[in-house]
Amino acid sequence: MNSKRLQAIAQLVNSDYLNIWDCCCDHGLLGIELLEKTAATVHFVDCEKHLIDKLKAEMLNLPQYAGRWRAHLAQVETLRLDGVKRQLLIIAGVGGDTCIKMVEALLKNHPGLEMDFILCPVRQIEHLRMALADHELGLLQECLVEERGRFYEVVHLRRYDPHGIPTTLCLLSPSDNLMHMRYIENRLSYFGKSSRSGCSSAFTHYKTLLASC
After folding, report:
1. Rounded CA gap, 70 and 117, in Å?
2. Domain boundaries, the chain
3. Where residue 67 falls among pLDDT bands split at 50, 70, 90?
4. Do residues 9 and 118 make contact, with C-beta atoms less than 8 angstroms apart?
5. Would you say 15 and 86 are in contact if contact means Cβ atoms under 8 Å apart?
6. Which of the four pLDDT bands, split at 50, 70 and 90, describes residue 205?
7. Are strands 115-120 and 137-147 parallel, antiparallel or unpaired?
8. Backbone conformation region of residue 138, classed left if phi is above 0, alpha if psi is from -120 to 50, else beta
9. How far apart are CA 117 and CA 103, in angstroms?
10. From CA 190, how far away is CA 203, in angstroms rounded?
11. Measured at the alpha carbon of residue 98, what is the angle toward residues 12 and 42, in degrees to the nearest 5?
12. pLDDT at 199 exceeding the cut of 80
């Protein structure tokens, strides 16, 4: 798996989960990596039939994982999760607004179920953090990835965790890390071209970090 982004997501996954849902699975590379890394049952989810059909065919060539995976042709918002054990849902490769809708639907449709999320939106990360802070979610882990000239935040969240979700990455240290410096400059440039006044606290935080260098 050559993608730094997918590698970063996989590194945040521990072996405690019995069920892992690779939502918007696309080519299935992440889910296959997690089959290798964990003992969990991995659920591949996508709404594109040709992707699910291709994935099913490819999985038949990996008999070592037989009985440990499921493929679901479905919208993420319509998933029905069975069982009482904590489950992990990974959503990546979609915009922040789409990610918010998916998470909110899953929380609403599964009251009381312990759920973890690993989210890696391709854009609108500050909006996602602010929106999900209004729900019963707390931050477990986070990381920053730079791949092919683009930046990605990866956040690992837990339902009913009391710590909450900060508006921006807590680990940013522009004085000591050139990638962090480039990321802050990237976000300030984004806000300079955007009318998202609702993220003013993030904008102010980035400006303060940059001024401290």
Report:
1. 19
2. 4-166, 172-213
3. very high
4. yes
5. no
6. confident
7. unpaired
8. beta
9. 8
10. 10
11. 40
12. no
Q: Tokens at residue 30, please?
A: 């992440």
What does 36-72 look like in DSSP terms, one character per residue?
A: HH-SSEEEEEES-HHHHHHHHHHHTT-GGGTTSEEEE
Pick the CATH number of 4-166 from 3.40.1080.10, 3.40.50.150, 3.40.640.10, 2.120.10.30: 3.40.50.150
120, 5 Cβ separation under 8 angstroms: yes
Contacts of 183 (CB under 8 A, 6+ apart): 144, 146, 151, 172
Please name every residue paired with 165 in a beta bridge, in sequence order, or none if there are none: none
> Which residues make Cβ contacts (< 8 Å) with residue 34, sequence separation at least 6?
10, 13, 20, 22, 40, 42
For the chain, counts of helices (H) and of strands (E)? 7, 7
> Which single residue is written with the structure tokens 């993030």?
202
Tokens 């980035």, residue?
206
One-letter amino acid at 158 equals R
| Residues 132, 107 contacting (CB under 8 angstroms) | no
